[in-house]
Amino acid sequence: MKMKDAIVLVTGSNRGLGRALLRVVLEAGARRVYAAARNPVQLEPLVAEARDRVVPLPLDITDPSSVAAAAAIASDVTVLINNAGVLVSSSITGSSADGVAAEFATNFFGTLAATKAFLPALERAGASGGAAVVNVLSIVSLANMPGIGAYSAAKAAAWSMTQALRAEVAKKNIRVHAALPGAIDTDMIRSFEIPKTSPEVVARGIVEGVEQGLDEILPDPNARDLFATWQRDPKALERTFASMLAM
What we know:
about 45% helix, about 15% strand, alpha/beta, seven-stranded parallel β-sheet, Rossmann fold, single chain
């Protein structure tokens, strides 16, 4: 799936990786990009960079009415990038029920709701040439990092959902990609003392992976190293993440 002339929607595009993804798909030649965020006012600096191609779109993926309204507006989407995500809790035993629920509300249920809402548009695009869904997950989808246990669990569930979706829509000419980045240098984990990759590098890696047709996209060196560990020995990755419990 090429980004040139694609009509792309990026959720959570107001900051961090979402903002970087928006800029990269524009550079790759997307005809139109829907920049989705809960507060579209925050998107004005991005819109100003390419006012003829960037469309601000109010979207809260945890709100069914907001999702339905966005799907009605952006009914011509050919590439859906499910980037919106939250990290609000800590360890499994140290997190409140509300904190764990919030992780799953956005990182799993919200991602699924957005995908289902835009599926009719993607099916039309698939019938006329091709479409894609990109679920921005995390390398901790593969093994749980106990310091962010609820987040890891929600992302693991989203990876499983991605696999199910891939099988369900394959005959409709819709590619489904799981992006599994390592730690990204954004506000979400800026305080974590671990190696991080810039959002710009990760965004370019994700877009390159989509254009190469990769099911699992490993957009940065850290992700590729950890994925190789998991391929050799899944328990080794589990132990690696367990050693980071006190981060």
